[in-house]
Amino acid sequence: MAWVVDTCLLLDVLIGAFATRHQGLLTRNAKDFARLFPDLKVFEP
After folding, report:
1. Distant-in-sequence, close-in-space partners of 43: CB < 8 Å, separation ≥ 6
2. How close are the terminal C-alpha atoms of the chain, in Å?
3. What is the pLDDT of residue 2?
4. pLDDT tens per residue across span 1-38
5. The pTM is what?
6. DSSP character for 43?
């Protein structure tokens, strides 16, 4: 089950890296991305 946690963290990093190239990120779990990307604009619906 540890691979699920590792996969989720890896996906958060990839999504956050993609969002830094654009205007920000729209997500429901903003705190996960704020921890990894503190300067990223994160919007919650």
Report:
1. 24, 25, 26, 27, 30
2. 30
3. 61
4. 566 667 888 888 899 999 999 989 999 988 888 888 99
5. 0.72
6. E
Cross-strand partners of 26: 43
From the list 11, 43, 8, the residue with the least C-alpha distance to 27 is 43
Burial class of residue 33 in the structure, from the number of CB atoms within 10 Å of its CB (0-12 exposed, 13-18 middle, 19+ buried): buried
Residue 28 vs residues 2, 3, 13, 14: alpha-carbon distances, Å: 23, 22, 16, 17
Tokens representing residue 12 in the block:
């958060």
At 20, which amino acid appears? Answer: T
Distance CA 8, CA 29 (A): 12
Q: Which helix (H) or strand (E) holds 5?
A: helix 2-20
